[in-house]
Amino acid sequence: MQEKVNEFKTKIRKEVRDKKINESRENYEKIKTEIIGKDPVFADPTYDTTFKMLFGNQKNADILISILNSLLNFIGDEKIKEVEIQANELPTEGAKDIQGAVDVLCITENKQKIAIEMQRKHKD
């Protein structure tokens, strides 16, 4: 008999816990919707268009330099010290005359030039 009582208590506790969890999720979604809107859209900066929206002008050049130095682990003379944002993509020729485009032209402390092009594309 005691075993059945314990099973019943365990079942009730689980149901109460599950109900609280579901209510918490519903409250979270409600609050999130109130704060950021019904259909929040976040931009991924690894897409070319978003990258240009964020870094397409000199206003955010210092942030871009910091991000690139961190991501590329550049230190000392390798560090990027300035960037030239290409508003209309600078055409370049690569290996075997493959045409490309540059979004950002970087200049390091030791005057080395590095071309950066964002290439990620959306896939369904």
What does this structure look like?
With 124 residues, this protein is of the alpha+beta class. Helices cover 44% and strands 23% of the residues. The protein is built from 3 helices and 3 strands; from the N terminus they run αααβββ. The protein has a 3-stranded antiparallel beta sheet, with helices on one face. β1 (80-93) and β2 form a beta hairpin. The radius of gyration is 26 Å and the shape is elongated. The relative contact order is 0.11. Mean pLDDT is 75; it is low at 94-100.
Task: Give a quick set of tags describing it.
single chain, 124 residues, alpha+beta, 3 helices, 23% strand
What is shown here, in short?
Helix content is 44%, strand content 23%.
Shape: elongated
Number of DSSP-assigned strands: 3
* Helical fraction: 40-55%
Q: Record the strand order, biggest sheet.
A: 1-2-3
For the record, give the distance between the C-alpha atoms at the N and C termini, rounded to a whole number: 57 Å
Q: Radius of gyration over alpha carbons?
A: 26 Å
Mean pLDDT: 75
Major sheet description: 3 strands, antiparallel
* Low-confidence segments: 94-100
Please state roughly what percent of the residues sit in beta strands, choosing from under 5%, 5-15%, 15-25%, 25-35%, 35-45% or over 45%: 15-25%
Number of helices: 3
Helix-strand topology string: HHHEEE
Structural class: alpha+beta
